[in-house]
Write a structure and sequence with these properties.
By secondary structure, the protein is an all-alpha fold. The protein has one domain. The protein is built from 14 helices and no strands. Helix 2 packs antiparallel against helix 3 and helix 3 runs antiparallel to helix 7. The two termini are 31 Å apart. It is found in: Membrane.
Length: 296
């Protein structure tokens, strides 16, 4: 993986780590599934009107939209709304990395090197230490919902690899066309039109304005910029090489939650975060390929 792509992967991790604070602000005003529907609807309308079709098979676009978009954010938003701490959510969601490596090996036949396995094992060990430290602050249901969000993200990653879009940004934007309808329908059933309407008619309050700022960050930075870069990286590199960088997201999320939300990490969590970073760096290294003998 080129050094430029590694730096881009780190940048995406920072953007997505801060994304959890924006989600926290958004959920202070909007019902969770309705918030997810709004997030993608804001992008979907101008995309349909102005962005060219990405020239990929529809099934891969649907797979990306239902996995990365609908499944991940419906589960994640509900988990955070029902008590999942912001920092812990950023950590548990990164189970998508080992999920992606496993699914990539099973469904795409991607080879997993010893460096990758060792790096992922080290990073997961650090992540597990942080999860153990904070496990007393989250109920079982929010934890399970966040793990389902991570699994949905992993399936979305596989669809991205199979799609191989010529223009990753167009592909990411068109992905946003998929989630709004199923999420609006889920919101009507689970949250009701009264809750939706109340969240829209109180946008002039301080909480409403904060939520709008959070939604703007989630849409423009988290989705357009972050997902566009991530899609580019997944297209240029094997899924098992790119996905471990997502383990940097909880480091950013935990740090930002400490600074802005008052969530205090312990020294164990700080040490485990260092282990996570080391694991990501090791997992991103690839040994030089052996020269193959070609029969003539």
């Amino acid at each position: 993986m080129p050094a430029r792509d590694r730096l881009l992967a780190v940048l995406v991790a920072v953007l997505w780590g801060l994304n959890f604070l924006a989600i926290h602000a958004t959920l202070g005003q909007f019902p969770p599934v309705f918030a997810g529907a709004l997030r993608f609807a804001v992008i979907a309308v101008p995309t349909i009107l102005f962005v060219p079709w990405p020239k990929v098979k529809v099934r891969y676009l649907l797979g990306y939209g239902l996995g990365f978009g609908t499944g991940q954010f419906a589960f994640l938003f509900i988990a955070m709304d029902t008590g999942m701490p912001t920092g812990l959510a950023s950590l548990v969601l990164q189970a998508s990395a080992p999920f992606t490596v496993l699914l990539g090996a099973v469904f795409l036949g991607e080879r997993v090197t010893r460096h990758q396995l060792g790096g992922i094992a080290l990073a997961v060990a650090g992540m597990a230490a942080i999860a153990w430290q904070q496990s007393g602050h989250a109920a079982l249901l929010p934890m399970l919902l966040t793990l389902l969000a991570a699994l949905s993200w992993a399936f979305g990653n596989l669809s991205t690899r199979r799609a191989e879009p010529d223009n990753p940004l167009h592909f990411t934007l068109w992905m946003s066309v998929v989630p709004p309808l199923p999420m609006f329908a889920l919101s009507l059933v689970m949250e009701g039109p009264a809750a939706q309407w109340r969240s829209l008619t109180t946008l002039g309050t301080p909480a409403g304005l904060t939520a709008l700022a959070g939604l703007a960050y989630v849409v423009l930075i988290g989705t357009v910029v972050g997902s566009g870069l991530w899609t580019t990286l997944m297209r240029r590199n094997p899924a098992g090489v790119v996905s471990p960088f997502s383990l940097l997201v909880p480091v950013v999320g935990l740090t930002a939650s400490f600074l802005l939300l008052g969530e205090r990490p312990t020294w164990l969590e700080v040490g485990a975060a260092v282990v996570v970073i080391a694991g990501v760096l090791i997992g991103s290294l690839r040994t030089a390929p052996k020269r193959e003998l070609v029969a003539v």
